[in-house]
Design a protein that fits this description.
By secondary structure, the chain is mostly helical. 45% of the residues lie in helices and 0% in strands. The radius of gyration is 13 Å and the shape is globular.
Length: 74
């Protein structure tokens, strides 16, 4: 999974991704699509995952107060 778009975008919204976090995004994406083979978790094509799942999740990061709890409803 090519995370270049995520790595490039994150600093523009003040998110500093370390090597460990980048690895976790990569592992999460791989596991998501592995599990998606047997259950309907996403209809987003795997080649669009980074933009449509990961980068999109950072678009509103500046609106969430530090230490806030967040629930993603889909």
């Amino acid at each position: 999974m090519d995370l270049a778009a995520l790595i490039e975008f994150a600093p523009t919204v003040g998110v500093d991704l370390g090597a460990d976090q980048i690895e976790l995004f990569e592992r999460f994406g791989a596991e998501l699509y592995k599990r998606n083979e047997v259950m309907n978790l996403t209809r987003v094509p795997e080649d669009e995952c980074v933009i449509r799942h990961f980068v999109d999740s950072l678009l509103f990061v500046d609106l969430i107060p530090e230490s806030a709890s967040v629930c993603d409803l889909g």
